[in-house]
Design goal:
CATH class: Alpha Beta
Largest sheet: 4 strands, antiparallel
Shape: globular
Number of helices: 2
CATH architecture: 2-Layer Sandwich
Structural class: alpha+beta
Helix content: 25-40%
Radius of gyration: 11 Å
CATH topology: Alpha-Beta Plaits
Strand order of the largest sheet: 2-3-1-4
Distance between the termini: 15 Å
């Protein structure tokens, strides 16, 4: 399942690249793309249920940039 979420307070392209790399390595994630310009994250997963996986993705993104939020 492929889904796009709006991000808030993503401050730099370097942080976006770090987040994208970390999320792409998660088990169950087929692909991940984060656009600093549009402040969006697009995630393709193996399962239709992204609930638990999204919790881990949010945690990883906040680890890189604590003020960044993903609107679920």
């Amino acid at each position: 399942m492929k889904k796009t979420y709006q991000m808030e307070d993503l401050d730099c392209a370097s942080c976006a690249a770090k987040m994208e790399s970390a999320v792409a390595k998660l088990s169950g994630v087929k692909s991940c793309s984060i656009s600093y310009m549009t402040q969006k994250i697009t995630i393709e997963t193996e399962s239709d249920d992204q609930g638990e996986l999204m919790k881990e993705i949010v945690r990883l993104c906040r680890k890189v940039e604590p003020d960044c939020r993903i609107k679920l």
